[in-house]
Write a structure and sequence with these properties.
The protein is of the alpha+beta class. The protein is about 25% helix and about 35% strand. It is globular, with a radius of gyration of 17 Å.
Length: about 240
């Protein structure tokens, strides 16, 4: 799919901007909204996403899919894989903490937020990603979980524009394949990048916590948790609290 770019100097969040303005976007394309500064970034479960001016990549991709698109709820996995390819091409050993956190040395480097609105058999997809690029340790220490930035781990500054351009190329290509075949072509690659397989974890589904062993993900991108009673429970959404 072709991509239209919208660049903003400052915005409350690229996700909010996309949801407020998507009626004006070309529905035959992907619209990529990026911002130099994001004052009220959003994460999953209504958490805030901290970003420092000029150091982060703050991005939302807006596009439409058919509501009956195969494995629609796993669309954010495709963005995670697209970003990981950018970094693996630079020989960085990044992994995925299910569902879509991109981790470097088991510290969070990027997070995703996917919101889908369905009407008249059309899904409007608002797919956000926040990436810690050139943040220093002082900023990272403000984050309420183990996190890092590309600059901290590689001891050099990164060109945000080049990262974004490569991400757009990878995501556009992967989205075309996803539209045709769903998550299936990405399943093995995603599972091979998954953190904590075989480990005991605590899992939160948004309402309740479960303790078990991370078993696998299924062919639709859902997490399989092996419970102490021998049952394997499948989750389409939630958080690993380990």
């Amino acid at each position: 799919m072709h991509i239209d770019d919208i660049f903003l100097e400052s915005v409350d969040s690229t996700q909010n901007f996309a949801k407020q303005n998507f009626q004006q976007f070309d529905k035959s394309k992907i619209t990529c909204i990026s911002a130099e500064e994001q004052t009220k970034g959003k994460g999953r479960f209504n958490r805030s996403w901290l970003s420092s001016k000029k150091d982060n990549l703050n991005i939302t991709f807006y596009f439409q899919l058919k509501a009956d698109c195969l494995h629609l709820t796993s669309i954010a996995h495709i963005l995670a894989l697209s970003f990981i390819k950018v970094l693996r091409d630079k020989n960085l050993d990044v992994k995925i903490k299910w569902p879509n956190d991109v981790m470097l040395l088991e510290k969070k480097l990027a997070g995703m937020l996917c919101e889908i609105e369905i009407k008249n058999n059309i899904a409007d997809v608002f797919l956000g990603i926040g990436i810690n690029v050139n943040n220093d340790q002082e900023f990272i220490d403000k984050i309420d979980q183990k996190a890092t930035s590309l600059k901290i781990e590689t001891k050099k500054d990164w060109d945000k524009k080049k990262i974004l351009e490569k991400l757009k190329i990878n995501f556009s290509k992967n989205l075309d394949l996803f539209k045709e075949k769903g998550f299936l072509p990405f399943h093995e690659k995603f599972e091979n990048l998954l953190l904590y397989v075989g480990d005991k974890i605590t899992f939160f589904d948004g309402k309740k916590e479960y303790k078990g062993v991370l078993h696998s993900i299924n062919a639709e991108g859902c997490l399989n948790l092996y419970l102490p009673n021998g049952e394997i429970k499948c989750f389409a959404a939630g958080d690993i609290l380990k």
